[in-house]
Amino acid sequence: METLENQNDKRIYVIKAINIILVVVILLLALVLISMTFLWTPMTVSGVSMLNTLQDGEHVILLTAWYSIHYEDIIVFEKSDDRNIIKRVIGLGGDKIRFSESEGAYYRNGEKLIEDYVNGEYLESYFDQAQITIRAALLSDEGYEVPEASVFVLGDNRMRSNDSHIYGAISENQIIGKYILGY
Questions:
Q1: In the annotation, is 87 catalytic?
Q2: Which class for 78: exposed (0-12), middle (13-18), buried (19 or more C-beta within 10 A)?
Q3: Which of 16, 35, 49, 171 is catalytic?
Q4: Identified catalytic residue from 16, 79, 80, 87
Q5: Is the peptide bond before 162 cis (omega within 30 degrees of 0)?
Q6: Contact, 152 vs 87, CB < 8 A?
Q7: Strand partners, 97
Q8: pLDDT digit string (tens) for 41-68?
């Protein structure tokens, strides 16, 4: 038969264990909330401009701090109409981007881009919505020069993407985050 003192000791032990578990859970929740505020954020893809890499309605995680941008990174940036846009980085500040109509291919600094992720082929209507100056620069021998502190972005579904081939480079200040995970 257990003594009253042993029963009290067991109750105290259980209460301490529950308190420790609660503290750990609260600390983990605080860590997640803090990291979501300052380090990463979830987002849902809206649209088909990044097919087949990202699907309409797919959930993604963006790194929002302590990242650097490289070629082929997928980023999210804010457009002037407060919409968040997700695209792939093709050029960085100082790069010259050129499109060859005869090859249906982009060049960066004179080197043809190998873009296995591109969905579909370019049609004659590819530049129909492009600003005249952007189109002229992309189709010229010199190419479009990406301004410093800017990036040139394209959607993977090129025929269904409003991107830098239409409106030019975007400022690095507009970048919200870098894609790190889809789910």
A1: yes
A2: middle
A3: 49
A4: 87
A5: no
A6: no
A7: 108, 144
A8: 999 999 999 999 999 999 999 999 999 9
